[in-house]
From TrEMBL:
<keyword id="KW-1015">Disulfide bond</keyword>
<keyword id="KW-0489">Methyltransferase</keyword>
<dbReference type="InterPro" id="IPR027492">
    <property type="entry name" value="RNA_MTrfase_RlmN"/>
</dbReference>
<keyword id="KW-0479">Metal-binding</keyword>
<keyword id="KW-0808">Transferase</keyword>
<keyword id="KW-0698">rRNA processing</keyword>
<dbReference type="Pfam" id="PF21016">
    <property type="entry name" value="RlmN_N"/>
</dbReference>
<feature type="active site" description="Proton acceptor">
    <location>
        <position position="114"/>
    </location>
</feature>
<feature type="binding site">
    <location>
        <position position="222"/>
    </location>
    <ligand>
        <name>S-adenosyl-L-methionine</name>
    </ligand>
</feature>
<dbReference type="GO" id="GO:0005737">
    <property type="term" value="C:cytoplasm"/>
</dbReference>
<feature type="binding site">
    <location>
        <begin position="190"/>
        <end position="191"/>
    </location>
    <ligand>
        <name>S-adenosyl-L-methionine</name>
    </ligand>
</feature>
<keyword id="KW-0004">4Fe-4S</keyword>
<dbReference type="InterPro" id="IPR058240">
    <property type="entry name" value="rSAM_sf"/>
</dbReference>
<feature type="binding site">
    <location>
        <position position="143"/>
    </location>
    <ligand>
        <name>[4Fe-4S] cluster</name>
    </ligand>
</feature>
<feature type="binding site">
    <location>
        <begin position="244"/>
        <end position="246"/>
    </location>
    <ligand>
        <name>S-adenosyl-L-methionine</name>
    </ligand>
</feature>
<dbReference type="InterPro" id="IPR007197">
    <property type="entry name" value="rSAM"/>
</dbReference>
<feature type="binding site">
    <location>
        <position position="322"/>
    </location>
    <ligand>
        <name>S-adenosyl-L-methionine</name>
    </ligand>
</feature>
Amino acid sequence: MRGHFCPRPCPSDVRDAMTATASQRTNLLGMTREEMEEFFLSIGEKKFRAAQVMKWIHHEGCDDFAAMTNLSKALRTRLAEVAEIRGPAVVYEGTSSDGTRKWVLEVEDGTYVETVLIPAENGKRRTLCVSSQVGCSLDCSFCSTGKQGFQRNLSSAEIIGQVWVASNSLGPRRDPANRPVTNVVMMGMGEPLMNYDNVVPAMKLMLDDNGYGLSKRRVTLSTSGVVPMLDKLGDELDVSLAISLHAATDELRSELVPLNRKYNIRALLDACQRYLAKCGDTRMVTIEYTLIKDVNDQQEHAEQLAELLRELPCKINLIPFNPFPHSGYETPSRNQTMRFQQWLYELGYTAPVRSTRGDDIDAACGQLVGRVKDRTKRNERYIRSIQIDAD
Ligand code: SAH
Ligand code: SF4
């Protein structure tokens, strides 16, 4: 059980709660159904209150207990004393010319995370790219978030808060046939499996009918390959899986993804097979392959990749490298990208090139740069700069 709250309040607790500051109240936003039921039991209420309040929070976008009209007045007053619904504050919201939307959110300690919504061209899918950490400790050589270093894990409230904020700003979500956010990918800043304890409850809320009611096929966790946590995830959830592979030999992958020195390609692919076996359906793993000029974009790389993946039910996504200052890497030409795609095709793989979208608001994948290390001046400059970018 995460978080803490008073099991059965004595009068002095109630008095304290009445003068409590926001941060002393229990934040209900990131609680799973089980956690919320426990919370209600602990304040002497029935379990079913959890579903009622979850619907207010996640279906209606409500953050005010006073508006929860199916609760008694006494309960609403009590909740306002001991609990709160606190999401991240929106400090910037922008829409790029291709319809990609981006929010910069201020989380608890004055740091910022970015969340991006990418609409499909046919208008049917709206995929939210969610962050799990501020920065990342895994230091992949081609990733700007990794270059920022690790600052901290996001709480489950801060993770689900991104879905909450995006959904709220897109309108009502009561109609399951027309949800504001239809898909979630954990592909923003951070490595989700390095923040397992907070990511899993947030993902449970994405799936829960009283939360966002998304099917497990529409919620994807992307990982660079934290093998033990991947095994653990398979025991608890069966969301879709994306693996950041980027190379088909250990030598090259260790250069790009240092974590490979700990969990090599064989160990990672074996873990994928175990994960799929636990899902027990016809799911495939998505293999993410960031194409970097003259590093992993040659014919031999395509051949090695095709050979390596022979046994794994998977689809490959090609992502042209998104450049950032001082990365030392370049994006392959469009022709080279097409050639790589064609080589894979001839080897039996249809590998879509994931388009880089939202460029004009700096929102494309891999550009969730976590320019958040310095909490003062640099942040201010950042917010100013993206506002200018988006104008
Ligand atoms: N940490 C997780 C999820 C976040 S990164 C992971 O590594 O999977 C999301 C995706 O963006 C990953 O596939 C990552 O390899 C890719 N990526 C990171 N930096 C990139 C860049 N500069 N250009 C293209 N893709 C990048
Ligand atoms: Fe972290 Fe993923 Fe970036 Fe690697 S690619 S540094 S794991 S966010």
